[in-house]
DUF5050 domain-containing protein (Aureispira anguillae), 298 residues
Amino acid sequence: MQTKKTNNLLILLCISLFWIGCKKDLPPNNTNEILFEAHDGNYYQIFKTNADGSNETQLTSSNIAYSSMPSWAPDGSKIFFISNKDESNGEIYSMNTDGSNVLRLTNNSRPERFPSLSADGTKILFEAIDNNYYQLFTINADGSNETQLTSSNIAYSSTPSWAPDGSKIFFISDKDESNGEIYSMNTDGSNVLRLTNNSRPERFPSLSADGTKILFEAIDNNYYQLFTINAGGSNETQLTNSNIAYSSTPSWAPDGSKIFFISNKDESNGEIYSMNTDGSNVLRLTNNSRVELFPSSK
């Protein structure tokens, strides 16, 4: 009898130790954060919240300059953004995720937009004015070695994004006499492929983590709405729909499980929402009186 009781205790102890070991391997809750820009009463500045919209933190502040278009480094260790501080036209900066250690990476006379770091951490992709049109460029992560990827005196290339593995770049252009279509190219600017052929303008294309879907926004019923297509351009699916409100500036969760975006639905000025990748389970994450833009999670 005593032996049986001892065996039972040993079994319970082993089960307890097993679950303790498993819990150590589980990721902690609420570790993801959402980065975005919002007007703080003076200028657009950069903020972050927890993935559920709680614990808002302002990362930049100024009564004479904006900080805008933020993006996470792929490993979540840095933030890249545009600012006209330092009396500039709009340069690329980096900072730590708590807003410290702000570094200016470019020094040009033109405005720059939408900086993002490559998967391997070596290159920053962005757009800048060239011959009166926005074109695409890369620099090294420290700001050196600028390389122009697109060029035209009659058409723009804009809103670029890296493929998650860093092998391709996706962007919008009105080349080929289009209104603004989705294109892909190699990271050196070669092998440019047109992926869509529509009569409407499209913006902000980005590839999913598994490389199968491109997320973007396009005009529908006079408002920007969210869509996906297959990576090759086929099988367009509309995710949001409204004749009174927009859904805009979408981004994938890093693991591809969610989409974050801005909408003025629910009679708001423009709040952060999340949804499943098929457009279901739409959740409002912020509730403010200001306009918010460019949400992205890590």
